[in-house]
Each structure stands twice: as structure tokens, then as C-alpha cells.
Write a structure and sequence with these properties.
With about 200 residues, the protein is α+β, with helices and mostly antiparallel strands. About 25% of the residues lie in helices and about 35% in strands. Strands 6-5-4-3-2-1-10-9-8-7 form a ten-stranded antiparallel β-sheet.
């Protein structure tokens, strides 16, 4: 009888130990789901909205457009009074490169890329000889919205490390619903810092 009771007790102990890891794994998985960074929660692989924006942007391929700096309006911005030109080039199903000229300065290119994480905007800065600038390839992945005319790109971790002051940057790129204007907008700390509007109704070429 004692041996029977002892065997039952040992069996009970093993049963309890076998169940414990399952409960622990469930709790761990739940905690991992709850701890997903906010940045990952608000972004997703290229959505239909992002794809629609990319498709509209690709329709401008091969054309160039003139623009003006509309903010700040006090004329103190380094771009104020200079001829701004965007050239929509090197278009494919995955990437669109748009060199952005400020007067004679041709060092800047906006790069839109369809990534697994979503639509990405990067700023490619290069010297006249084509070598990369020390501060280059900053930007971020588009936030998922229901507005196919506006893409919002908050600064990613690489940008925050490269340019700490730009960690709160958000770049907005807008294709007006009437198809007349392309706007490039920079915000920092939720405050507007720069905006340039390009007239799509009068392509240069």
C-alpha cells in the first residue's frame, strides 16, 4: 500500500513539472507581444495605400519640375531665393530616385524604395566626385495611413544615431489629389521647419 501511495505521489510531481513550462511559455509569449515597440506597431509591409502612392509617383518618371521654398516665409532659409528642381529618374518596380537640385548644388537625391518593412524614404548625399557624404542615407519607413496622397516618414533608428538632433524628424511627401503639386515637408518636434512645393503642371522636359 505504501509503495502504491509513493508511486502515485511521484507521478503527481512529474505531472506538475510537465505542466509548468507550458504555463511559463504562454506568459512569455504574451509579454513579448505586449512589448512590441511602438515603431513596429505603427509600420507594416508596403500596404495598398503605400503602393498607390508609389504608383502615382512613378508616373512622373523621366520628368523634371521646378519648385519654391514656401516655408519658412521670412527668406532666411538657406534654400530661399534659389532655384529648386526635382528630377524623377531611375524608376523601377522597387525604387525611384529623385535628384533634388538647389541652385548649382546637385548633392541631394531622394530615394523611395519598396522594402519588406514598407515604403522607405532615404536622403542620399554625395560629393561632386560621387563619393558619399559623411551625413547620408537618413530617413525612415512610411507610417501606415489611409491617405494615398500623403506619406509620412518618421526618422528611423539609423537617422537618430547619425543625427541625434533629427531623432524627432518626420518627412511628409504629398502628391496633391488634383495632381498639380508635389510637396516635400520637414517637421521636427511636430513643428514645421521646411516646405518646398513643385509645380507638376509645367514639367521642364
Amino acid at each position: 500500500m505504501k509503495k502504491l501511495l509513493l508511486a502515485a505521489g511521484i507521478a503527481f510531481m512529474f505531472a506538475s513539472c510537465a505542466q509548468q513550462p507550458q504555463a511559463s511559455n504562454t506568459t512569455s509569449q504574451t509579454e513579448e507581444l505586449e512589448q512590441v515597440p511602438e515603431e513596429q506597431q505603427r509600420t507594416s509591409p508596403a500596404t495598398a495605400t503605400q503602393q498607390a502612392f508609389f504608383t502615382e509617383l512613378s508616373k512622373l518618371c523621366g520628368k523634371s519640375f521646378r519648385g519654391v521654398a514656401v516655408f519658412p516665409a521670412d527668406g532666411k532659409d538657406p534654400f530661399a531665393g534659389k532655384e529648386l528642381t526635382m528630377h524623377v529618374r531611375e524608376c523601377s518596380d522597387q525604387i525611384i530616385r529623385i535628384p533634388f537640385y538647389v541652385g548649382e548644388d546637385k548633392s541631394r537625391t531622394w530615394v523611395f524604395t519598396q522594402m519588406e518593412e514598407g515604403l522607405q524614404l532615404k536622403h542620399d548625399h554625395r560629393h561632386e566626385d560621387g563619393t558619399p557624404d559623411e551625413v547620408t542615407m537618413y530617413g525612415g519607413i512610411a507610417m501606415d495611413t489611409n491617405d494615398a496622397s500623403t506619406m509620412r516618414f518618421p526618422a528611423d533608428a539609423f537617422t537618430a544615431q547619425l543625427i541625434p538632433a533629427a531623432s524627432t524628424n518626420e518627412w511628409n511627401v504629398v502628391l496633391s489629389p488634383d495632381g498639380k503639386t508635389f510637396s516635400y515637408i520637414l517637421k521636427r518636434d511636430n513643428q514645421l521647419r521646411f516646405q518646398a512645393d513643385f509645380d507638376l503642371t509645367q514639367p521642364i522636359n
